[in-house]
Design goal:
Layout: H1 7-16, H2 19-24, E1 30-32, E2 35-38, E3 50-53, E4 58-61, E5 67-68, H3 70-77, H4 82-93, H5 107-133, H6 138-146, H7 151-156, E6 160-162, H8 168-173, H9 177-185, E7 189-191, E8 197-199, E9 204-210, E10 216-223, E11 238-240, H10 256-262, E12 269-272, H11 275-283, E13 289-291, H12 299-306, E14 311-317, H13 320-333, E15 342-348, H14 354-371, E16 374-375, H15 376-385, H16 393-407, H17 414-427, H18 431-441, H19 448-456, H20 460-472, H21 480-490, H22 512-524, H23 530-536, H24 543-550, H25 559-590, H26 596-611
Parallel strand pairs: 12-13, 12-14, 14-15
Antiparallel strand pairs: 1-2, 2-3, 3-4, 4-5, 6-9, 7-8, 9-10, 10-11, 15-16
Helix pairs in contact: 1-23, 3-4, 11-14, 16-17, 21-22, 21-25, 25-26
Amino acid sequence: MAGKITQTFIDELMNRIDIVEVIDSRVPLKKTGREYTACCPFHNEKTPSFTVSPNKQFYHCFGCGAHGTAVGFLMEYEHMNFPEAVEDLARHVGIEVQYETNSSFTPKTQKKDDSLYELLAKCDQYYRQQLRKHPQAKQAVEYLKQRGLSGEIAAEFGFGFAPPGWDNLQSHFANSADKIEKLISGGMLIKKDENKTYDRFRNRIMFPIRDRRGRTIGFGGRILPGTEEKGSKPPAKYLNSPETPLFHKGQELYGLYEARQALRDIPRLLVVEGYMDVVALAQFGIRNAVATLGTATTEEHLHKLFRLTKEVVFCFDGDRAGRDAAWRALNNALTVMREGRQIRFMFLPDGEDPDSFVRARKKQGFEAEIDNALTFSDFFFSWLGKQADTNSIDGRAQLVALASPLITKLPPGVFSHMMRNQLAQLARIDSTELDHLLTQNAAKPSSKSENIHATTGMQPAQAKRSFLKKNFNKKQPLTPVRIALMRALYQPSLAKDAGNPSRFNDLAIPGVELLVKILETLQAHPHLTSSAILERWRDSEHGPHLEKLVAWTPELDNSEAIKMEFLGALARLEYQRSEQRYDFLLARSNQGELSPEEKMELKELFVHINRDK
């Protein structure tokens, strides 16, 4: 079920990892009895309802329904995919991931990515050396000094220099066809039609782009003024690495790694438009700035930012282009906005950028402007208000028409409710009537999965949580199968006392087949934990059901009492099995089809069933 990573490895990993340690490093936990608690990182709350069980290696939020293993937590909290989460946990405990030999994603594939990281790290070091040693680096150093940047800040952000010329990098590294291919794959070389290659970055100040672990995954290069190559068209002022196996500009933010290194707590993050803005602000002690990489802010960017802070401030030029960019950012933020999160918009005076503005106003003046930034709702309604005259009925109807498709993208909650109320006030319409109109005008999705997303405004992970909460948090009768599964998942060692699970194979009641498989798995692998069982069934139809059952915790952690409940549930299943067998034999008896042995069995079952009633 785990796919390309071996099941044996995942079992071993789940035995070695401590979910308390994994979560506590990201969300501070407090010990409360047998478990640990915190305010849930997946929804806004004041009273902790998020619990982590060291016994089950499982987390569960009683508020929003979020739950899972250490792997699931990283997938949800860090927005990793399954292999990334497993690899992260493996590094944490110091073991190497094992892959299936018949899988397309073999260790060779992993080594290919690792070697690409190593190659980009070497390119990073090369550029830094060139800034210190290359004869033509003096102009780059002078430019940085003119911008008022210190050697310390340049070293912290890893500034480098790509010398002029077409083959510096490939001459230094590409001593084989394999190296050339890797440099092309990493975005460092450009391949011509005639299979010739040349350096992508030339005569530029280099800014390494780092991922959350500090690894270099790409570069940005700023052309040196007056150094354009003769006979060529004017180069781009800033040049980024292209999309590569390691670098995806819609997911990465320049300066985020450095901000996390500089600040233990990040109450707000400032999104600016360029590398030099981030660095200049850091030079003046404003260490919470990041920049997008040649693209508008995406939902993925915002998810990444809101994992670290509750407030994001966009900083744009005050001209028309800056306000248009701010409106695009607001549109991309609609699906992630909810209570507990704040987005604001800061517009600089004409002719100013963050670099020039912070030099003129210094840290205190710049931060005062941040404090005065427009709120999400103020910018939203002021922008639309300029397109609709609310002094007329027609204008107010136009405002509703413009705002409705945007407001319906907001996740349900207090913030969405208040935005609707504000629109109702501006349009001078009853808020209940407006809600009815918004619901009536909502586009009808074409599929069930789209319906969840469109009607809730949630991202897939949120929608899945909501769906599970609605469908599995309903009180269901505690059948013997459910009781046996809950006790076995809470205390996996009980499986050894279950006897031969296959005796229930012919029992025709829901869930028995799953119970048999889990008991057989635990008997064959007695070292498995509850979380390992969940990972084995992650991609099956039973996965969500098992996660719900694992959330169960006894009022008193009495292993002997839990064992008696488990064995009692199996005994009731055996009784149901006897009843089903009795009914089957009785039906055949009425048709006169029983053998002497079956007649004897029918009598014994009759005595057994009536004795136990």
